[in-house]
Amino acid sequence: MALKIAIQMDPVAAIDIKGDSTFRLALEAQARGHALCYYLPRDLSLSNGEVLARTRSLEVRDAEGDHFTEGNEVVTNLRDVDVVLMRQDPPFDMSYITATHILDHIHPHTLVVNDPSHVRNAPEKLFVTEFDGVMPPTLISSSEQDIRAFRAEHKDIILKPLYGNGGAGVFRVRPDDENLASLLEMFTQMYREPLIAQAYLPDVRAGDKRIILVDGEIAGAINRVPAEGESRSNMHVGGRPEATRLTDREREICAIIGPELKKRGLIFVGIDVIGDYLTEINVTSPTGLREIERFDGTNIAAMIWDVIEAKRAS
Q1: I need a surface site. Which of 102, 135, 210, 229 has the fewest CB within 10 A?
Q2: Which whole-number Å values give the CA distances from 280 to 224, 239, 246, in the listed order?
Q3: Are strands 4-8 and 83-86 parallel, antiparallel or unpaired?
Q4: HAMAP family from the xrefs (predicted)?
């Protein structure tokens, strides 16, 4: 069954195809005979109850420097396509939230992946708090007094913006670090939201594991090792990917959260685990497909499309 697929994404010309999961999903969809088009988030409109987008047809090739061909811009009613992949990168800001509200008007008549209502209600660093016994010691607060008390208790901590992404704005604050006041001033000037503080996990030196779940089931994983002198393992900031196997504890964490992901229609999810602790549940635009496939040959894009196709056929 050939499907009409619209991808809401960042500019296709600028993506790094070696590591881009959206591109891998597009390749897989095209190989299955599905018709692709794409649009940028700013090209999405709600007009008299109709969800419209200025789309361009899309053909993709796994060739650096020559990875796509696009057609002329047309206005598409997104109720006339079968699937919308909501794949633009965070930040998870009001623009992102507004897009989920607009896409709510077509889902599930047009299947939006991931479900826009549940994307909106599952910010990466807050969603984790809904599950008992999986997080490291964590504080979400705007109070300098509370954050100082948290550091006094846990000594070595991580501070980061509540809605940040890609490792941006993440600071390790040791017990004797005199920059805490300055950092809190900076965060207060930059963000209106509370901060998130977590106990520093020394296990991060061995890596921050990205585990992909498809419709609530484990699909694959990769370990991301921080660069020398870094406490962040994100590949955006120099983290080194390496092959990995899941521990019993990591499987236990997946078993705890998996049923809820499936219930919420969160088909493609990437979670981050350091040692024995779950730190984030990524539902907006998870990455890692190409790295996992490169290391062990697992085609997670095919698993995702198997689920999507089954949902469209039901």
Answers
A1: 229
A2: 14, 17, 17
A3: parallel
A4: GSH_S
Per the listing, tokens 């109709």 go with: 50
pTM reported for the whole predicted model? 0.93
Contacts 24+ apart (CB under 8 A), 162-165: 162/123, 162/125, 162/126, 162/191, 162/193, 162/194, 162/195, 162/196, 163/90, 163/91, 163/92, 163/93, 163/123, 163/125, 163/191, 163/193, 164/91, 165/89, 165/90, 165/91, 165/92, 165/124, 165/284
List pLDDT tens digits, range 196-244.
999 999 999 899 999 999 999 999 999 999 877 666 566 655 678 899 9
Average pLDDT, the chain: 94
Could you say which architecture CATH assigns to the domain 137-200? 2-Layer Sandwich (3.30)
User: Would you tell me how many other CB atoms lie within 10 Å of the CB of residue 248?
Assistant: 7
Longest CA–CA span in the chain (Å) reads 61
Taking the CA atoms of residue 95, residue 97, residue 100 and residue 105 in that order, the dihedral angle to the nearest 10 degrees is -90
pLDDT digits (tens, 9 = 90+) for 87-131: 999 888 899 999 999 999 999 999 999 999 999 999 989 999 999
Domain 124-129+203-307: CATH superfamily, name plus number:
ATP-grasp fold, B domain (3.30.470.20)
- The DSSP element (H or E) to which 158 belongs, if any, is strand 157-161
d(CA 161, CA 164): 5
Point out the residues that are catalytic: 125, 160, 210, 224, 232, 272, 280, 282
Q: What percent of the chain has pLDDT over 70?
A: 97
